[in-house]
Every structure is written in structure tokens, then in C-alpha cells.
Amino acid sequence: MNAEEVRSKTDAELKFDKGNLQKELFELRFRSSTEANATPSRVRAVRRAIARINTVLHERTSGVRGQEPRN
After folding, report:
1. Residue 39, by phi and psi: left (phi above 0), alpha (psi -120 to 50) or beta?
2. Predicted model pTM
3. What is the per-residue pLDDT for 21?
4. Among 16, 43, 48, 66, which residue's Cβ finds the most Cβ atoms within 10 Å?
């Protein structure tokens, strides 16, 4: 998920995606601690996707870059 995709979504969609990504991250961490993880790069990708969503949500609430909250 790149920044353009994140910015094109509404706040509700972003919060829903963030919840799903956090669940996936938990499962990946749990799986990597109990067994060999086949895709360790996925953990990094999920963490970065969550960070992008958090950044866009923060930009919208603080009014940075001319972004307004989308309903």
C-alpha cells in the first residue's frame, strides 16, 4: 500500500485497514516466534503500512499539507 492509495481512502476505511494490519502483524510476530517464518519481509511491509496510515490520519487531524478529515 503506497501513500497515494492511503490518501485516497476515507478515515473510516483507513481505521478499518489499520485494524486488519495490526491483527496481521500480531499473527506474523506470533508465527515467527513459534516457527520458522517464510516471509520475514512481510513484517516490515506491514509495519510500514501501519505507519503510513498513522501519518495520513495525523496529517488530516492536524491540518498539515492541506488535508482535511474525510468522513
Report:
1. beta
2. 0.85
3. 97
4. 43
